[in-house]
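Hi Y.,

Following your request, here is the sequence exactly as I used it, all 649 residues.
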Amino acid sequence: MGASSSVAGSTAASAIHGSIDNLKDSVKVKKKNKKINPNEDKPSDNMETIKNMKNDNPVLVDDFNFFEETTNQLKINSSEDQLKRLSKKLAEFETRFFCYTEMKLHRNLGDYLAMIGFVEIAVNKYIAILKTANLKHLTDTILEIKEVHTADNIKMTENEVWFLISVRSVLWNFSDASVKLGDRVAKMGFFHYLMNDLKELHKKSAEFVKNSSVFDSAVGILHNCGKSSSVETRECFRKEDTVKNLVPFLQTKSKNVKLLVLLTLANIINEEENHLLLADDTIFDDIIQMIKWANKNQGHRFDGFSVEELVSGLKGLARNDQNKNILMKKGALPLLKEIIEAKYNDGEVLQATEAIRILSFSKDNKNDIKKDVSLIQLLTDLTKNTVENVANAASGILWNIKDDKEKHENVKNSPAKSNGHVMISYQWADQKKLIQISQMLSEAGYLVWMDIKDMEGSTLQAMADAVEKACVVLVCMSERYKESSNCRTEAEYAFTLKKPIIPLMMQRGYKPNGWLGMILGAKLFVDFSGKYSFDDSFKNLSRQLGKDGKIGGDADEVDGPIAVVRSVPLQAARGNGTNEWSADDVSKWLKKISLDSKEKLQSLTGEQLTFLKKLSNRAPEFFFSYVKTDLGLHRLDDLMKFTNAIDQI
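Below is the corresponding structure, written out as tokens. Let me know if you'd prefer a different format.
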């Protein structure tokens, strides 16, 4: 959770060596501040990533080695003494974690634990201890070592309890920093045991829950894992009815409990589950009030959560269109405006601006935003902000509040159906597959427009031009697509202009609802989720497109700011000089720039180098991804050498 701190980590580390009471406190203090076989050999690509992480993070190498050593020891069946030593080592995990203050280092530590299989091994050991003790859940009395021998069917030693506490504590803190580790926790089925903990707590009083270490750690882990956009992780939440099990805790009078639950729900609740929140809309008053308190407090925090984190939670709740209207009526807009005007830090300004953008998608809210003249001026100024995402969010709001006539007043002659390009509207998580689709469409003679940059970095004008000049728009639907403000802007504008839309299914089993469901209606979709073979799906797409978007020339001639992307080694762009290099010329060039030891680079031709130069200018995001992933240049100095040399050819 965002409230983790070095103080919390130090307490957790020392508690293992101290009293049992302190051990319980070590868990509570965090609030303030298909299974994988762990014995299988790691894939070679994972080993390469681990090696690169060590090379790129020399300051963390000692910590990485300690993590590996401890993880290997966890694989062994442990005696009582070994369990005690392992618990102390897990406490040292957190000591090492909190000795750093940079979030990037925290993330790298968590990512490393995820890559070496720690989560799988630790969770399996955790589950095995519970099963041996004939337990399905933990209780606070067990954590206090008061109930381990009170019944014949419960057999758990003090050292085993210490170990369970240590595992929960590590997962809690490290999942706050590392989405990868959180995804591993979900994949291992750990949510099932956390749900069992919460179901047992449903029977307890509100006062008991308020002081429960089990509640704090269980919901803390769920909150952190909920920050992931992974489809698989979200499915894990739904499989365990997480929303249904969390909602009852909203009835508590404890602001602390309610806040933690609300922020967790904000990350994971979907359209079908949203009615559970609407049973008592005072929860929207609560989160707005908590943001106000945090905004007034020194340090801009409430109960350990920053204004930035709290507004991010409000954004999550606002994804549902009905919630947008409720939040506006409860006074969210003037509060968000106040946060932007205060300029406490860039993070707060970004979150508040993005929150207003989400609220502005509601027709009922647009007029309220337009009426606030000073807010419009503030947003206009923000479009020139040096933080690109802030500028884009502000531009997005100003775009949303325009009426339809204003938006396409420059659309004089929308292209005839057979003369425009095929526009691909997608969420960046699906980029790799869509680059392949784009490439194949281009080869088949279609003129394709696809933004290769992260969608957040695109200008609204480029988007508008692309939609206006499209003869058909491919809407690549998924849960993540629906939640993206940029994707919604594209899809709604295409719908407004009555552009033909072909939906592509990118997430297996996904059923579009809310605004996306309204736009797509009963349209037939082409399934690229993996349910059917890629080739069959592409043939289906080609049949639906027919002649729309087909041209006689090269797709790279597309009239627009961003051309279709082609993957090396397709036919490279023709040029002079370098284009004619022999294998020996390439080898000499690599030697000159001190990269002749890289085998993958030796296979490049002069023609491909020419194309890479072109690609680095047209699609830098894809260029760097290709160079790193396919050409194996992971180190920063190698990337610099190669990129600078490419610029000179």
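The mean pLDDT is 83.

Thanks again,
Q.
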